[in-house]
């Protein structure tokens, strides 16, 4: 993949090419040489962080402890999975890596997906998990795992639903939710959202879920026939 400099002017993105376009090839694939579509990706120039490396190996330790698989084997497995997922890109978390923060986040998401899917307990890596990231909060809701402790969770509505309201008549896609076990649900109700966030170092703003996810995790509501 070649990198190309670009600048934004209003609603327009102007590309500055460092190499000439093969017009014959362009006309072959697009049918014209003066109008065509371009796929582009904004390059992340941030180098993968040491904190991401620590989290990756902490999670590998948790998986190895649960599955009895060697950590070297798991590292190779997830590096290969990353390569397949990104159509051949390679990943490295070494000190002299050329991989970016975004690259490392993709790798970590693959590992976290695996752990949720196979119910691998988060132990050594739990304190390092990026709980402020929406993706992790989404997976906690999707798999009914408490954002705070990792135990089985219910769906807590950050936007409070009145006690007399029929929840099956509520459009839950418009509500912010988070996954909390019974114990931590009781605590947030008792001490309030702000003190809860300070005590457990987790966000309490919640996220919104789509209809498909809400139905999959058993949250019944009025979704307008969707």
From TrEMBL:
<dbReference type="Pfam" id="PF16784">
    <property type="entry name" value="HNHc_6"/>
</dbReference>
<dbReference type="InterPro" id="IPR041242">
    <property type="entry name" value="HNHc_6"/>
</dbReference>
<protein>
    <recommendedName>
        <fullName>DUF968 domain-containing protein</fullName>
    </recommendedName>
</protein>
